[in-house]
Amino acid sequence: MKLLTHNILTSNIIKGVTRGFPLKIKSSRLEVKEVDFNPDFILRILPKLDWSALRQAATEVGYGNGLPEELPSSLEGDDSLQKTIHNILLQVEIVEGELECPETGRKFPIQNGIPNMLLNEDEVS
Amino acid sequence: MASSGRPERQAPPELFYNETEARKYTSNSRMIEIQQKLSERAMELLALPEDTSCYILDIGCGSGLSGECLTDNDHVWVGMDISPHMLDIAREREVEGDIILGDMGDGMPFRPGSFDGVISISALQWLCNADKAFHKPAKRLYTFFSTLYGVLSRGARAVFQFYPENSSQIEMITQQAMKAGFTGGLVVDYPNSTKAKKMFLCLFAGGAHQQLPTGLGTDTVPQESSGASFSAFREKRKRGDRKPLKNSREWILQKKERRRKQGREVPVDTKYTGRKRKARF
Ligand SMILES: C[S@@+](CC[C@H](N)C(=O)[O-])C[C@H]1O[C@@H](n2cnc3c(N)ncnc32)[C@H](O)[C@@H]1O
Q1: The domain that contains A93 carries what CATH number?
Q2: Record: contact B143-A20, CB cut-off 8 A
Q3: How many independent structural domains does chain A possess?
Q4: Averaged pLDDT, B24-52
Q5: In 3-state terms, what secondary structure has residue A114?
Q6: Model pLDDT for residues A95-120, shown as the tens digit of each residue
Q7: Cα-to-centroid distance, B81 and ligand 1 (Å)
Q8: Could you write out the DSSP letters of every residue in A45-110?
Q9: Average of per-residue pLDDT across B20-47
Q10: Does domain B7-238 correspond to CATH entry 3.40.50.150?
Q11: What is d(CA A107, CA A110) in angstroms, rounded to the nearest whole number?
């Protein structure tokens, strides 16, 4: 699971959970995979990101360095920050680990890079 | 599907798409080709601006064949599927999208407005079945569509190619989609051919009024033809863009290079790569 996905993933499909975001991350195996750098996409997705959740997640998995506390109003032309963000959003991958609902503590395992978001009967809203 | 009947009648999807079935999505060239063709048509109906990299959700992403079509068009995607075996194949294929194990009938676990579009190939009809005692198809469809509406950006489209079993399934599906706030409707390609006929549910999540695209192989001449609006998108591309034009030689070379990086078998590049073939009948 990439940190971009973590930045949009919630547990609010569980009955009674209102926001379910950000999910806490525990990572026991991490990989960095090369993905083509696509600055257009990075610039387009930035306004949709929850920056503080991204910083926190990146820090939790040991990649928080180089991320400013506040996102600058424009990244146009800042190649190095664009590449840092590209790396954190798309290249860093949690292969084994766990996500945790911030409201209920319900855990979602991550195996072979795939988070398991399947609900039990009594959790479905 | 012939003699064995419809897959949805045999077993729940997480059991039907077992290791053997999933393997077909890398070994059976006919199945692969069908998935690719359907994905390309669905992409066309999505009508994303061609010079923009969008963020797309693929529902029932399975082995990632539909996702690869998104990657080839420079989009970034997230896929969800209920079958772990299908997702294992996607991992094996080293698809560029990120994949999640989930049941669409449980709802879409994403923040509001996350995606620019949704694609779904041959998956939606599965929701019409009650695979567990507590499943109520209409309710699961509603949960699915209403949460899906929320995770789309305003005006975004969701295109589902699907195989309804009968007209009451179509009715149940479209009813729940409309109840969830979507507009749009069915696009039927080649409606008069039993073999080539394909159905696409084409939904719009709010925003300005959008014209429903016209199906292929229909006799009626579309006034405000979908073909026209799609080619308008294409013409918007400015010359001198960094990205090569789709299906051009350069575009094919880039795509092959991506596949090679994943260690996959790719035909060698020759002077014929990307050349137009002569029409032979
Ligand atoms: C015909 S396959 C599509 C394959 C996919 N487009 C690909 O490129 O490999 C249909 C897929 O829908 C998935 N599916 C069926 N019901 C589902 C559900 N309730 N939630 C999520 N996925 C589902 C199946 O597991 C299967 O992988």
Answers
A1: 2.20.25.10
A2: no
A3: 1
A4: 93
A5: strand
A6: 999 999 999 999 999 999 999 999 99
A7: 6
A8: HGGGS-HHHHHHHHHHTT--TT--SS--S--TT-HHHHHHHHIIIIIEEEEEEEEE-TTT--EEEE
A9: 94
A10: yes
A11: 10
Tell me the pTM.
0.88
How close is the nearest chain B Cα to the Cα of A115, in Å? 5
Q: How far is the CA of B167 from the centre of ligand 1 (A)?
A: 21
Mean pLDDT of B95-111: 98
Sign of CA dihedral B83, B89, B94, B95: negative
Contact in structure between B100 and A114 (CB atoms under 8 Å): yes
Residue B228's pLDDT is: 37
Q: Is pLDDT of B60 > 90?
A: yes
Q: What are the Cα distances from residue B53, in Å, to A44, B48, B73, B262, B276?
A: 8, 9, 8, 21, 27
Q: Side chain identity at B214, as an amino acid letter? A: T
* Structural contact between residues B184 and B146, judged by C-beta atoms closer than 8 angstroms: no
Q: Is the residue at A59 inside a domain? A: yes
Ligand 1 centroid from CA A51, angstroms = 32
Determine contact: A112 vs chain B, CB below 8 A: yes
Cβ of B258 under 8 Å from any chain A Cβ? yes
Residue owning tokens 């387009």: A44
Q: Who among B103, B113, B261 is closest to A48 (CB)?
A: B113
Amino acid at B205: A
Q: Rounded to an integer, what distance in angstroms lies between the CA atom of residue B175 and that of residue B170? A: 8
Give the residue numbers spanning the domain of A42: 3-13+20-111
- Domain boundaries, given as residue ranges, for chain B: 7-238, 244-276
Q: What is the DSSP string of A3-22?
A: HHHHHHB--TTBTT-S---S
| Secondary-structure percent of chain B, ordered helix, strand, coil, rounded to 5 | 40, 15, 45
ipTM: 0.96
Render the burial of B111-126: b for 16+ CB within 10 Å, e for the rest: beebbbbbbbbbbbbb
Q: Please name the amino acid found at residue B109.
A: P
Strands B55-59 and A114-115: unpaired
Burial track B250-278 (b if 16+ CB lie within 10 A, e otherwise): ebbebbbebbeeeeeeeeeeeeeebeeee
Higher pLDDT, B14 or B135: B14
Taking each helix axis from N to C end, the angle separating B167-179 and B137-151, rounded to the nearest 10 degrees, works out to 40
CA A106, chain centre distance (Å): 18
Angstrom distance (rounded) from CA B259 to CA B254: 9
